[in-house]
Amino acid sequence: MISVPWPRSILPSTHCNMAPRLSELQQDVFKKTYAPLRITSLKESELSKDVVGQFLTTAVLDSIGLSAVYGKKGVLTLLALASAGDVLIIHLSGSQQQSRNHSLSPRQLLQHEILCSTRLSKIAFDFERLSTALFLDCKLLIKDGVDIQSLVPGYRKTTATLLASLGGETVLHRKNTLRAFEEHTKDKGLEMKNLALRAWASYMVSTFPSFALSLRSAQHIDTKVIPKKVLAVLAKCARDYDRLSALKPMKVKNGISPDVKIKNGSLQLQQTRFKTRMRRAKDQFVVVKCKADKSTSIGRVSTAKGKSATVNLNQSLPLQGRVSVYTIGKEDLTNAEAARIDIILTCLQRTNTFFEQPFAAFIFLQVPFSKPISSIGMQLPAAYFPGTRTLNPSQLCAVKRILSNASSDRVCLIQGPPGTGKTTVIAACVHSLIANPAYRGERSIWLVAQSNVAVKNIAEKLVDTDFFNFKLLVSLDFHFGWHEHLYAKLESNVVRTDDISDQFQQTVKLFAGCRVILSTLSMLSNPRLATAGVFRLVPIETVVVDEASQIEIGDYLPLLSKFGKGLRKLAFIGDDKQLAPYGQDDIGDLKSVFEVDHLKKRSVFLDIQYRMPKPIGDFLSRRVYDGKLNSQHTISTKTSCRLADIKLSQERKSGTSWENVEEVNAVIKIAQKYASEGKSYRIITPYDAQRNAIEKALEASGVPWEDRCFNVDSFQGNEADHIIISVVRSQKVGFLQNIRRSNVMLSRCKKSMTICTSRAFLEGVASSTLLGRLAKEWAESRQSWITSRDILADKF
């Protein structure tokens, strides 16, 4: 096959009055030879009735293929329309062009004559993304849209589904096809070529003999008939997902131990970091580099269980010296991610009644509940907490709101600053609900959170309050070989996913008499639970969500879609002054329920903290919580927080992270002293590179090192008597710009906190940060600062 070189003339011109650019392209996706494609490339302002009319004369099968390019922040920048031999590429402008002489504007012309034409079927891959982007970025609607992946059974976002949709590998040039559907390239000419080929390949699907049959049962997308409020929610959820997906790395260096072996052409290794663990994935491969002779081999993960993994290699390696292992490509969608995409798509196809469900309608559309819980026959439980424990007034108010039968409380928010007893409130709710006769043996409670650690913390609180009749669900992937030690005190309550059988009778035995289940939010999308009948045995009726301020609101789509009809109560507990949903630093308008005004305005504020020494608690109250947070603690001196001025403190780049060698040395010295004194301590730092360096230094020094050092983001919800902080930065503010993450960092200690940093840095460029303000307030205390010399001499 002879390919026509991609002409530079197709690139957009900077000359506003230039006529549409014309060129030809020889397709190289299908093995069959086709006539060269005629490409017309123009700016949106150049779109005229003549151009549209000329293109429509080529759409003889009443179908066109669509494709798009999404630029910064996922915004739609290029739209391609394809017929049998023509491709029209439109460079979309940021704002709609005004019409002249009362005629249709270019954008109105595009919608009226093509996108909403009842004569044309519009065929595209990932139609949920395209249709919502058209609305979100261009205020354009579309009719008779056909999502190609919906026509093919199987996992939606995979290479296999893509190739099957286009007729299978026997009719395709696999490599060229994958390149054409690769969106991300810095080569603008290649980007335009791929865009044209994607649109034309989408059109070609409509020519397959099987398409006519599939089209009869296909659900079309028609955004013109979807209420604008609903469409806006779907578009925002789709865009947030796209942007979060884009943040996932395409290349990960896997942490492995040195004892690597090769057996029968396969690499056998032990992994050292859960965060970079290897998994079997459909569209990922592994690159293995031998440092000694710089040889490289490529392979795929064949097995991965716990810390052990096996990689089948395409060629043998000598294994001289250490090897480096990298995973390339995006990981598979989680069950929850796949469910989210499916919900958006089926809502657009109008086969999903998601927004008719009362909880979804209230949260996303502000539609009030029509029925209170009491009308469903549920008695109001009294607030109850066992033993001699008492709840403070704000905690009692929070519990009553969660127990309330009022329509206005069917969804309720509890804001709990650090140390205010969020898990105490959850435990009190469990005791109150289970003690109520209306719940005993009939009603069920699910306690969920974003992270396994948060779920484990809730479980430990229940045990601490003498409540033992619950089950904690955890995945094999997280538990086996990695985090079994976290569940030592909860072993009899833990149910691992591989323990759950498909047989309902086995499920009955496993969950016999249990009405309280703990799990992560994503676990609710695990198909094994549904297959085994877990939800039938323990229905999802009352749900309490911890760490809700860390959960992006779109993550609730699977929960609300699948269980919304049977849901009776939904309580969110969190703190929008602590960690935000993942990605908010990059996606500024990413929201949790605590950023939704009509939900937040009736939230309960837990106003007494018991964890931190009073000076630290009072400082955070003034600087973060508008003075509303009160402290009750036996320690009231500022010596509970000391700042260590580390001599020669110097930040340095380490990959995409940062480290500070002098701070590592200081942290180890402090840790050795605490260990020798038998003190309970933890080390936290904002940067992964520093965490790795500290952990290695701890191990080398002979000090207990496992589960001692944490990244700040993984330590919310945790605490320790003594906290050692390594700030790392000494020149640029970096992490400290984020007041929410800084708040988490400074609020973990129960007795003391030592902050390793640079005094000149905090009094200089970082003076306006939360930590800089703390340093300024503590400056009046002579004992607030210690030096590297003090640390070396054990004078601290």
TrEMBL record:
Record-annotated DNA2/NAM7 helicase-like C-terminal domain positions: 600-757
PANTHER family: DNA2/NAM7 HELICASE FAMILY MEMBER, HELICASE WITH ZINC FINGER 2
Matches recorded under CDD domains: DEXXQc_Upf1-like (cd17934), SF1_C_Upf1 (cd18808)
Alphabetically ordered keywords of this record: ATP-binding, Helicase, Hydrolase, Nucleotide-binding
Transmembrane segments: none
InterPro entries given in the database record: Coronavir_polyprotein_1ab, DNA2/NAM7-like_C, P-loop_NTPase, SF1_C_Upf1
Name this protein carries in UniProt: DNA2/NAM7 helicase-like C-terminal domain-containing protein
Domain of life: Eukaryota
Record's keyword annotation contains Acetylation: no
Organism, scientific name: Somion occarium
